[in-house]
Amino acid sequence: MSYPYQIKSFEQYQEAYKQSVNDPGKFWGDIAEHFTWRKKWDKVLDWNFTQPKIEWFAGGKLNITENCLDRHLATLSDKPAIIWESNNPEEKTRIVTYERLHKRVCQFAQVLKNNGVKKGDRVCIYMGMIPELAYAVLACARIGAIHSVIFGGFSAQSIADRLDDAKAEFIVTCDGAYRGGKDIPLKSVIDDALIGNKVVKRVIVYTRTRTPVSMLKGRDVWWEDEMTKVTDTLPVEEFGKAEEMDAEDPLFVLYTSGSTGKPKGVVHTCAGYMVWTNYTFVNVFQYQPGQVHFCTADIGWITGHSYIIYGPLSAGATSLMFEGIPTWPDAGRFWDIVQKYKVNILYTAPTAIRSLMGFGEEPLQGKDLSSLQVLGTVGEPINEEAWHWYDEHIGKKNCPVVDTWWQTETGGVLISNLAGVTPAKPSWATLPLPGVQPVLVDEKGQEVTEKDEDGYYKGNLCLKAPWPGILRTTYGDHERCRTNYFATYENLYFTGDGALRDEQGFYRITGRVDDVLNVSGHRIGTAEVENAINMHAGVVESAVVGYPHDIKGQGIYAYVIYSGKPDVDDLAKKDILATVSRIIGPIAKPDKVQFVSGLPKTRSGKIMRRILRKIAEGETGSLGDTSTLLDPAVVEEIRNGRL
Ligand code: WT7
């Protein structure tokens, strides 16, 4: 594969950027020519942000898996598409060539069909990080079923809510998953999620951990049994066929938290998402054929969708997939993997870097990291200390570091330097990619035109126009999509992030400006955590805010009014954590729970989170204006009890 649209110099970047803004139709039309289409599009772009209506490559027909698999078979059939490293360092590597991947995807696509899955049906995938997860995702795409991958850290209740919202009739799961020293009983969690569910018709179960599982007759089937049926019973020309999809047919739904209590199903469509993940993969990481790309995210998050599966595979790349975690069996795990597979590109999260930084240089001793050429980060703002540690100790000051800012809703990277091509600036995401038009606005939606006292433009980050990877809707509720992203400011997509811009036009993302937390790069809505805490029998009311956490970026601080006896505080706290774990999942457990007698509220009953946030952050001085509070005395009581 060659990438004629790969930007090779700063001048080329500037030129591409200018063209993408002046004539997006021509710019993206030219790039789309480099993909495989059953039929070319009628119109490159049609949009308005009021409805919103966004269509890329309308009238075009394609299947994304023909772009990720079939088109590579002539040249890359025996090249590794996926290299899989087990959680267990002793277990054998699995190398899945493009030919093998194509075959397995076609086979599993037929398994899905045999089990009644049709184009447009929603298939929930709840699996660990094994190649079969990639097969399942791509098999859905192959037959036009809409995949909805749920991260293994979500609880039965969260799964039930998502199944319900997506009206999913099919589930693909495993008996269990290995993660570090733990075995997670995935099938058993699914069984709990399905209590009372009358919609799900079929659960396909892959064996990974050999954990005993209950298999319900008529509903649950084994992956292995279903796979053996396929090759025998079907003519090859039948079971290899990909469904012809419209450019704007949905490809997948991925649930993500917002400022309300209920996660939203972000919908991405086939053609735009394909072009965007491919274009950003090739340009941000400056991928060269033959390189090994290691994205450490889980496929349960958008980073895994875009930069383990669709971006790399559509580019004919080799994507390394790791089942485990960075600190097990020891903190040298990533470095062992880099050495073992001669990894060229490493893409990870600031929280992982900070956590590994905490182990010092010992885990790096004797590890050969000389294969590394590009380093990347994603998920949250990276502090300068972590940036420099990554650059010096991992990249040996020889690898460009790309700080990639984007969101589940954006499909792929929007603001980032291009490795070695455009300049880096520690803790700055820097410049927008071609097609991305950021603007900073004030509370009223006016563009910020004055610098602050530090010489930066500072405001809420919005985008003026659509790029091919932008979300199209939120599943089953288009109005929710409009109010969430397109209604805060007229004719703008609002990201929910605050940002600074410097003289050169570089952007620095400062974090969320809404009630959304970013804990270890995972998005968690404060309202969602509050709802979960409030489910606990002894809880009267609660308020959740974020506070700076050395490793996680943000920690979760919960203020709770509790009706139980004060001498059982410690147990009550544990009960509350268990409740949150059960309702959302262990990832949403508060780091701190402070019991309080009241919460600071305005006369109209609104909780003053600003004050609670300041207390959680350890503010010892003024908390701002508290005169509008119903009971100002409660504030000092809360501050005195701070944990
Ligand atoms: C939020 C999106 C995009 C994949 C992983 C997270 C924050 C993401 C950066 C970055 C500063 C970042 C933002 C954004 N974020 N990347 N490089 N610098 N902040 O996806 O769960 O949709 O979260 O993560 O706050 O809005 P997500």
Secondary structure blueprint with pairings:
Layout: H1 10-22, H2 24-32, E1 43-48, E2 53-58, E3 61-62, H3 64-68, H4 73-76, E4 80-85, E5 94-97, H5 98-114, E6 122-126, H6 131-143, E7 146-149, H7 156-166, E8 170-174, E9 177-179, E10 182-184, H8 186-193, E11 202-206, E12 220-222, H9 223-233, H10 236-239, E13 245-246, E14 250-256, E15 264-269, H11 270-284, E16 292-295, H12 302-314, E17 318-322, H13 333-341, E18 345-348, H14 350-357, E19 374-378, H15 384-394, E20 401-404, E21 438-441, E22 457-463, E23 473-474, H16 478-486, E24 493-501, E25 507-512, E26 516-519, E27 522-525, H17 526-534, E28 539-549, E29 553-562, H18 569-583, E30 592-595, H19 609-616, H20 633-640
Parallel strand pairs: 4-17, 6-7, 6-8, 8-11, 11-12, 16-17, 16-18, 18-19, 19-20, 29-30
Antiparallel strand pairs: 1-2, 3-13, 4-5, 9-10, 14-15, 15-23, 21-22, 22-24, 24-25, 26-27, 28-29
Overall description:
The chain has 643 residues and is an alpha/beta fold. The chain folds into three domains: 10-64 and 270-512, ANL, N-terminal domain (Rossmann fold, 3-Layer(aba) Sandwich), CATH 3.40.50.12780; 65-243, Rossmann fold (3-Layer(aba) Sandwich), CATH 3.40.50; 516-640, GMP Synthetase, Chain A, domain 3, CATH 3.30.300. The strands form nine sheets. A seven-stranded mixed beta sheet has the order 5-4-17-16-18-19-20, sandwiched between helices. A five-stranded parallel beta sheet has the order 7-6-8-11-12, sandwiched between helices. A hairpin with a 4-residue loop joins strand 1 (43-48) and strand 2. Helix 5 packs across helix 6, helix 11 packs across helix 12 and helix 14 crosses helix 15. The chain is globular, with a radius of gyration of 24 Å. The model has no long low-confidence stretch (mean pLDDT 95). The chain binds 5'-O-[(S)-butoxy(hydroxy)phosphoryl]adenosine.
